[in-house]
């Protein structure tokens, strides 16, 4: 027996070369061939081991040792065989690789040829495929119509055959009847009164089969000719004639023959027409009677079809009567005028009809429907729950059987819906909208119909090619067949229907009528010199808005409405992303009714949402015109003829309404899009004047050329008729394009375009001052704001460029300065400590102003040499001081800056330069060391010095120290509830951007208090104090410009403060950019003068067009009138007044000379000691609460004007008492305690008071022991209260800082005459037209 092991399967001796062996998972060893065979046969180990799993290649392992002894000869042979096999395989692989490379090259050529062929034919294929889909869709529609006609024909043939058979079977049964079918119909037409009384006719109907009779009615109706008469005699004239061919007024069958308002006389002229109408009525009544005889589904469908045809014929006769009436009774002159549109609004009043109409409906049906709607819409009740409640209501109606008639009970059961969908449809919650298909590329819209095009056919100009973008996509998932659905869809809400529903709501007409009365009373007072305007409706612009004949638009009779609407549009992120760089944007177009009070104007239920343009991108300035055209189409009838509404809440006979879009209120981008202006960066960036962008730093308003309507309309029409290339040139040259708003005859873009305060002030100027001018980052150190955050100077110019610019400035050569390099001019301004604007023109202007102030120069001969031998020998000397040496030396605070007493130094060369100092400034210094950043190169003009951009210190004015101090003060500040609190982490990146209200509170309250505390006691000539005064000028101007009242004093003070802020800003921050927001801020004074207080628009990100939720607010709103100026919230508990409170109240009334008897007995008799405690009351739109309910809303100011005292509101109560001449008088009174005043020595040191109302004042933290009783009208406003510790003030005691929050202040502190910006007057006359053109080149 051999000692060499064998395989357990084939029993062959294994060999490491000839027959190698391998080990499997279970540990058994077999030869490689057997293991491979077992794996392919998917068999387990053949030795029946525990592992019964089938073998796999990954389960085999090669043995690491030889189990068979081999000789050296066997090893050499094995190595030789392996080498030979590897060489053979390598040769085979090389030949295969060469062959594959040839094949790949050949295939590459073929693929290239095929791709080129496909690229040539792919457009044709796509176009053909689109045409094929269109043709297939048309074929499918035609086949569907054909199939319907075939089925109808089959039905008619079957009915005809059945009728013939029935006629033969029943011919003998009908032989005894006196009147035949045709004779009976003629008899009924001539004698309609005998329809139900004739026995012969009754026997005829009883003997005739209903199917046969229905068929006979159909045939007679088809065979009967309808002749339109030439003349008719009407019984009377309707009060409100219906316009012919008006789709909103169709004939409604009521079962009454010859009904009003177009009833005819019984005369020979009307005989034929009345006979036709009587025949139609008889057939309709007979068909309705036949429907009750059979319950067969097919028969009922036939009856409905015949009834529909008969009703259509009656509608045709009704339309003929309307047309003939207008031909006979309306003169041609009246016919030429546009007809008066009429909107039926009775359906909008049924949800409020609690008292009139059917009492059972009001007491049973209406509350039940409201209950179901509240469950579904407010509490999110399921559909099943709502339908169970409706079923229970139906069971309650069944309990009325026997109490009401069966017909009445059937009517109630029919009007009570069975499903939630029916309940929603009772009150017509869904708005009336029109649907449009939107192009995803050009934003063009087409009405959504079954025949909507597949590709966009819009052309930007008549000569432009069509857009050809896909409008629809194919959907197979919904119906299982190929269905085209729009890619984007736009819903436009009908303005007529929205306004009709708006006027049918309770309290709306009360507010509109009261505003109309108030406006008439104040119209005479508006002519005074310094009248206070409380709203835009009282402004000069709206009061002077008139018809073409000169009559005031707002003056109208009581039964007519004249409404002003402000158009606004803004983009929002529908995904509620708070990041500044949002990627998804939808654009909303909405209008505010300016006739409403300010507190009601921006409520979602009072805002007309025209539509939301789908995202994810914003439409351009021309693309948004598609959607503005829809709004203009809705508003044109309101201006031309007006729209009549049949009924409103207060006017059962209806009212005429006229509207106008005045003004357009949006941010800078929105105003330009809506009113047809160019972009903010265009040459003529301003929408109110022709100031070019290169002169944006010009703050001298007298030099601004104003825009006018005629010029605007001229260039807009030129743009409308031009091609694409010409349009771009016109927008670039004039900044004007066409907008559909110009179709409104009264629209004046220069007057009616207003940038609202929210965008221009809060998110514009305030945010720019904090972030871009000062810098705002809690992670960096504090600085003095001399250089903008994150800025770097330009590269240093060459030696030759600096020398030429220096010589041009010395000689005052404007042409040479214009030809100089911008970087050379920038460094000249830097060394002269002049303003360094962003434009070359601004740099030249600053240098010329400095040159003019120096007087004539004595020319130095040494300056005329362009290059000396010493300069050539020292090529490494820079022309002037390096960047590091030119920076002013500033001693920054080590920890907390000036608030801790650190010395803040600011060294600036403020001494005027003489000729010698000017020469020494610019001559190269021989001892100057070469900075390591300088790279020296050789140019045609000598030495050229190039440097890298120097890194300025990364500091910010609002750095870690200031922002930490602001955050600490914010935690100790108490503001009322109506103020949106600013975030404590403002300045941190993780917080994100701030909203407009947060910027207002952050800058106007928290930042102002903290900076006055830190910088207010610095020397007046220090930079910190100047920065504080400049910032407070901005805050004061913003507060005045955004007040809810305005006057001539307000406007003058605003213009003074804003001009002073801008002029001082240019001198304090030499490199701060002046942007269009600063220019528009000066135009705000014109807005306040012409438009009154600017109505603010807040972020209306999600406003559904009269959705179910917002409409439900109208159902649940009480209709009782509110108090005129003070609204109260009363508790159920009555509390008695103490004796001291009664005495204080008696003293108050005695001081008003109401109580004539001072005896205590009389006072006790007149004053009731019992009162009702109130949780709150509302005064001038602001809610006040006692300290026990809300400490934030209990901080009030008492007094008048600038003289005020802070107090704490402790109690609000409603008191009733008897007054002579009246039964009972009910009034609200307040119990207050004043804050204790500080000692006079501390008051004299209060540095907050020197900054006026924006600075506030310091008061004690304790209240006085004695309280007072006041009326609510004595309250001025709330105040913001900040607790300051001893370390903050240095007074040795904690204090309260009181900052008034009065937005209705009528008295304004004047700060003196406005500062004049002479930056553009000093250089006047030094530039001619050629130089002006050259200076625009950068």
Automatic annotation (TrEMBL):
<dbReference type="Pfam" id="PF02992">
    <property type="entry name" value="Transposase_21"/>
</dbReference>
<keyword id="KW-0863">Zinc-finger</keyword>
<feature type="domain" description="RING-type">
    <location>
        <begin position="7"/>
        <end position="47"/>
    </location>
</feature>
<dbReference type="InterPro" id="IPR004242">
    <property type="entry name" value="Transposase_21"/>
</dbReference>
<dbReference type="InterPro" id="IPR013083">
    <property type="entry name" value="Znf_RING/FYVE/PHD"/>
</dbReference>
<keyword id="KW-0862">Zinc</keyword>
<dbReference type="GO" id="GO:0008270">
    <property type="term" value="F:zinc ion binding"/>
</dbReference>
<dbReference type="InterPro" id="IPR017907">
    <property type="entry name" value="Znf_RING_CS"/>
</dbReference>
<feature type="region of interest" description="Disordered">
    <location>
        <begin position="1310"/>
        <end position="1338"/>
    </location>
</feature>
<feature type="compositionally biased region" description="Acidic residues">
    <location>
        <begin position="1319"/>
        <end position="1338"/>
    </location>
</feature>
<keyword id="KW-0479">Metal-binding</keyword>
<protein>
    <recommendedName>
        <fullName>RING-type domain-containing protein</fullName>
    </recommendedName>
</protein>
<dbReference type="InterPro" id="IPR001841">
    <property type="entry name" value="Znf_RING"/>
</dbReference>
